[in-house]
Design a protein that fits this description.
Length: about 325
């Protein structure tokens, strides 16, 4: 992330610490973040400021932030290669978010589908933060002058709004922000819920059978795969209308490196029971090193503290450069 003369593009992404990361987060996003470290200057953050738009229990939140941070490291995000930090430890996010919220229209925020969904789901707590959330996300991205932002489809609308706000600010003053683009990964798979394979696997799913987490042990993983919802057919093949089997085949293919054709051949003449067991075992084996490294890291509090503190200091430095420019352009008076 050092702003040197090297021309590598900047990538920024974030993930909320609202639960243990799922297999879907891992295969669909984090695993890809790890690969991107080789080619880009990457910044990855735990988006804890975002997570309080929904009520959180303080002790649990604190534990989840640390666990989420350790998970990124355990998955292979390397603090020597990437900037990795906790959002609330970098005050510039909240500061720029305020400025940007003054350049974001009420109408624009009202059109955000995630706001509509979340306010319907948490009707007793439709707070202003839930509404202005995209301005905070814009600040996250624009502070680091990110070129590319790996996000799922559910976040694309927020990214488009980020661009609109950045263009508006740049036009009102002068070039200040790099315009970010969505990054659609070459590798990466959309993993669906095991309980309802028409829905994306989500860590906030009320049905715990819908997802497997990165930290689940072998027994839990195998049990959940055994229960995975499939169809009344018996053949393991990838086909329209077989959402459950398609999802299991995708998962198996990603964790074993086999193609879908190879998977189909491997299970020819075998039933769903055998297949589900094989997927469960393969996933469990695949996640074992992550699970073990996570456990080791969480027990090494001093190391974690050192990594996130160093990450926060570096992030603050980079973020402050952008924030100072913005404050100057807006007309604020700097401390002398
Ligand atoms: N809003 C994203 C989510 O809920 C997380 C996030 C916060 C993010 N800031 C970001 C993602 C900046 C990409 C870039 O998934």
């Amino acid at each position: 992330m050092e702003q040197t003369t090297n021309q590598k593009k900047v990538i920024l992404s974030g993930i909320q610490p609202t639960g243990v990361f799922t297999l879907g987060n891992y295969l669909g996003a984090i695993r890809n973040w790890v690969v991107l470290q080789e080619e880009y200057r990457c910044a990855y953050m735990i988006a804890d400021l975002h997570s309080i738009t929904v009520r959180q229990e303080p002790a649990k939140l604190r534990q989840q932030i640390l666990s989420a941070f350790a998970t990124l490291l355990a998955c292979g995000i390397d603090p020597e290669k990437s900037l990795v930090f906790i959002q609330s430890q970098v005050p510039q996010h909240a500061e720029l978010s305020w400025v940007l919220s003054c350049y974001t229209q009420f109408g624009e925020l009202s059109r955000m589908t995630q706001f509509k969904d979340k306010s319907a789901k948490h009707a007793d707590n439709v707070n202003a933060g839930l509404f202005t959330y995209p301005a905070l996300m814009a600040a996250d991205i624009l502070l680091y002058q990110a070129d590319l932002v790996p996000v799922g489809v559910d976040q694309k609308q927020h990214l488009e709004l980020t661009r609109d706000v950045a263009v508006r600010f740049n036009n009102a003053y002068s070039d200040t922000f790099t315009l970010p683009e969505p990054y659609i990964p070459k590798v990466g798979a959309k993993i669906m819920s095991l309980a309802d394979p028409t829905k994306k696997m989500s860590k906030s799913d009320e049905n715990p059978n819908g997802f497997v987490t990165i930290l689940d042990g072998p027994d839990v993983i195998i049990r959940k795969f055994k229960r995975a919802v499939t169809d009344s057919d018996t053949r393991v093949c990838y086909a329209e209308g077989k959402d459950g089997i398609n999802n299991l085949m995708t998962i198996y293919s990603v964790v074993t490196g086999k193609t879908l054709d190879e998977v189909e051949r491997e299970f020819e003449g075998k039933g769903y029971g055998d297949f589900k067991l094989a997927v469960g075992e393969a996933v469990s084996d695949h996640l074992r090193p992550v699970r073990e490294e996570h456990k080791r890291l969480l027990a090494d509090k001093a190391y974690l503290e050192q990594v996130y503190s160093e990450g926060a200091r570096r992030a603050q430095q980079i973020a402050q450069r952008t924030l100072s420019k913005v404050y100057r352009k807006v007309g604020f008076v700097p401390v002398k």
